[in-house]
Amino acid sequence: MSHSSWLRLATTPGIGAVLVDRLIERYGNPAAALDAGDHAWQALGIPTAARQNLARDDQPGLDAAERWLEQPGRYFITRDHASYPGALADLDPAPPWLYAIGDLDLLARPAIAIVGSRNPTHAGLAAARDFGQALAAAGLVVVSGLARGIDGAAHEGALEANGMTIAVCGTGLDRVYPAAHRELAARIADQGLLVSEFGLGTQPVRGHFPRRNRIIAGLCTATLVVEAARASGSLITARMATAAGREVFALPGSIHNPLARGCHQLIRDGAKLVETTDHILEEIAGGLDGYRFRPATPGDLPAGASPEVAEDDADTTALLAAIGHAPARIDELVARTGWSAESVSSRLLILELEGRVVTAPGGAYLRSV
Asked: Which residues pair with 273 in a beta bridge?
């Protein structure tokens, strides 16, 4: 069957995964579907506007897509393409095609999704970066959605480990959203893979991101959620992963952190609580047969721990212990340590500059590591 027929179908406005399934189930291939004609399309329940677009010989997006594909490292893969991930067949509906930039071989390797809040705490960002780095170093492909916050940190961690990462985008691949991640997207295209089921020119639309999330879940052996509110896209991704028979992991957090509530809900619903990369690797080891990876050691990058943190002196250790895992005000820390307010404030300033504590609402301080 013709690659051009698939691409013409993909660039027809109003034709998405559900209608493609209907057409291919009836006619077997896109060329036959395109030749069927208006009466046959109407009988299949194809909407009027989509039928009118199917009948056009001059699809405006087709030439642009063909020119885009002429550039090195750019691909359009359909369900009958050798690189199309078989794991996506479990999705309902499965994406009929993917646009891609980068290394298609990553689609055949074991992968883990790392997702979470677009507005995480400092500790959440550090955890996402650390887990992304450690899991990539262990040989897994780290998959996320290129969004601000947890997604971006997970990609960054994988790249820092010289590991593999895939960004699943909610726009056409000629767009970068958010624009602040333009340089990150370029690095992923160079060292990893960008994929999208959306055609060129597709802008960020709210309804597109759940569709992107189902691909993130479908590509991966497991999904790790790092900080998420109770109503968030990350929890949708986790539920899609569960529905597709994938493992779901969640990082616990402070009961005072609203972004821990989504993870706690997932754990109550059956997700596995994790604190280190070992917890994940032990659970999914059976799905990694045939792949070589370096298992993380028990001391490797526990949740929220940063490898750059220097050995603490006794006073720092005592102050961090006094803060604990909930917001604490200076007067509370004075009472807990027995130090003067000046000594507590001075030590807190140093820890804040090091990124090890952050200020919480009401002037309290919260540990970030």
From this structure: 250
Beta bridge partners of 165: 142
Q: How much is the pTM?
A: 0.78
DSSP character string of 340-362: -HHHHHHHHHHHHHTTSEEEEGG
Q: What angle do CA 85, 90, 95 make, to 5 degrees?
A: 60
Kindly indicate the confidence band of residue 296, based on its pLDDT and cuts at 50, 70 and 90: very low
Cβ 143 vs Cβ 220: under 8 Å: yes
353 — pLDDT class (breaks 50, 70, 90): low
Structural domains in the chain? 1-63 (no CATH), 104-288 (3.40.50.450), 314-367 (1.10.10.10)
What is the percentage of the chain residues whose pLDDT exceeds 70? 91
Please check whether residue 87 is in contact with residue 219, taking contact to mean a CB–CB distance below 8 angstroms.
yes
Separation of alpha carbons 245 and 243, rounded Å? 5
The answer to which of 149-153, 279-283, 300-304, 353-357 has the lowest mean pLDDT is 300-304
The phi-psi region of residue 67 (left if phi > 0; otherwise alpha if psi is between -120 and 50; otherwise beta) is alpha
- Alpha-carbon distance of 19 to 35, in angstroms, equals 15
Type of residue at 205:
V
Q: Are 100 and 75 in contact (CB under 8 A)?
A: yes
